[in-house]
Design a protein that fits this description.
single chain; about 270 residues; six-stranded mixed β-sheet; 9 helices
Length: about 270
């Protein structure tokens, strides 16, 4: 933990995941959590959203929060300035390497169901035949020709399998293609293929450098295995009660669930 500042906040940076962490199951942020975040920022800490969602699926949440600072999106691929609606950095997935990685995975487990996130402020999420997309307010574009997935720069590819569960698929993908690409499990039905070496910690460290803070100044909140690198980078990692067992295993503490204002509980304690 870093030394407390004059306002008594032991961290200069509060990093929060979105889904399953900051957002409740209905996709909203509670009044209590909004108040706690406002209090810590008033006391001198910065709040930064660190999410697997690419910018187009994140902007509306940030706008609703009145969030004007930096956000790390796309599993670390994008650093986004919410106040200026501008991408500061964006890393894309080499499509040739991704294709080779998918071929190696399919050689081990059989045909995959695919979706992909296109790069850019308005990049679409393309959903291929058979891929089970989450129904809800986040837009996506169904495609019928799998070749369309590869027609423009991508941040990541989503993979599903007809019979394997998420943890099994992620493990198989890592074993088959981990030397070519990054593999992470970001939520139910969400196993992702990323540029090798990319994770939330790499994106967060870039954003933190712009803010003049370090991992030793940071407390991070999350709920899924894709948050493990962020916990390793931060001084203190807080898993939600609803978190995946793999994240709880490396967390410094476990708070209440996203439905029970788990972030606010910790921040209120820090402010007390």
């Amino acid at each position: 933990m870093s030394e407390a500042d004059p306002a008594g906040i032991p961290y200069r940076l509060i990093a929060t995941d979105l889904d399953g962490t900051l957002l409740r199951p209905d996709g909203t942020v509670s009044h209590r959590t909004r108040e706690a975040l406002a209090a810590v920022t008033t006391a001198g800490a910065a709040h930064i959203v660190v999410t697997g969602r690419a910018v187009p699926w994140t902007r509306h949440v940030l706008d609703d929060l009145g969030y004007r600072g930096l956000a790390v999106c796309g599993q670390g691929a994008q650093v986004y300035h919410a106040g200026e609606h501008r991408l500061l950095t964006s890393l894309t997935l080499d499509r040739q390497i991704a294709g080779l990685a998918l071929a190696k995975i399919e050689a081990e487990v059989g045909p995959l169901l695919l979706a992909a996130s296109r790069d850019g402020l308005d990049g679409e999420v393309l959903v291929g035949p058979g891929y089970r997309a989450h129904e809800g307010p986040l837009p996506y574009q169904p495609i019928h020709d799998p070749a369309d997935l590869w027609s423009a720069p991508l941040n990541k590819v989503y993979i599903q399998h007809p019979t394997l569960g998420d943890d099994e698929l992620a493990e198989a993908a890592e074993q088959a293609a981990g030397g070519l690409v990054g593999v992470t499990m970001a939520g139910e039905g969400i196993v992702e293929i990323l540029p090798l070496g990319l994770n939330k910690a790499t994106g967060l460290s870039l954003a933190a450098r712009r803010l003049g803070v370090k991992g030793a100044d940071t407390i991070a909140f999350g709920d899924m295995p894709n948050d493990i690198p962020m916990f390793a980078w931060a001084a203190h990692g807080v898993a939600m009660a609803n978190a995946h067992a793999d994240l709880k295993a490396v967390a410094d503490e476990v708070t209440l669930s996203n439905e029970e204002d788990g972030i606010a509980v910790v921040l209120e304690r820090l402010l007390a």
